[in-house]
Amino acid sequence: MSLARRCSRTACDRPAVQTLTYVYADQTAVLGPLATYAEPHAYDLCALHGEKLSAPRGWEVLRLASDLTDRGPSDDDLLALADAVREAGRPLVRKTPPPEETGRETSRRGHLRVLSTD
């Protein structure tokens, strides 16, 4: 469940848990798990409005199995976050030493330098 996405129904401020899409060619309304990202032609619904959904006469409502319980972050999510924080906190170590300069700087243009070999 995403805290940033809310139910598409007017005046409903509950979090969205399901996504509704219409297949006009088949006259079918498909209600499934919350889509990964919000799309302009889909509607995010809360659990209450998902249960009460009805389709126009002659249309079929296809309800895909979805788990509406909020599981929170998994152990994998927490471990990945901890690894990312650890990696960001490590000092940057160069694997190869910088090449030795054999000349002296004669001019500079921006970040580039001209070295003479005298």
Short overview:
The protein has 118 residues and is an alpha+beta fold. It contains two helices and six strands.
Helix content: 10-25%
Query: What is the string of helix and strand elements?
Result: EEEHEHEE
Mean pLDDT: 81
Low-confidence stretches: none
Helix-strand blueprint:
Blueprint: E1 18-23, E2 28-33, E3 43-45, H1 47-51, E4 60-63, H2 75-89, E5 104-109, E6 112-116
Parallel strand pairs: 2-4
Antiparallel strand pairs: 1-2, 1-3, 5-6
Model description:
The chain has 118 residues and is α+β, with helices and mostly antiparallel strands. The protein has one domain (1-90). It has helices at 47-51, 75-89; strands at residues 18-23, 28-33, 43-45, 60-63, 104-109, 112-116. The protein has a 4-stranded mixed sheet. Strands 5-6 form a two-stranded antiparallel sheet. The longest helix is centred in the C-terminal third of the chain and has 15 residues, at 75-89. The model has no long low-confidence stretch (mean pLDDT 81).
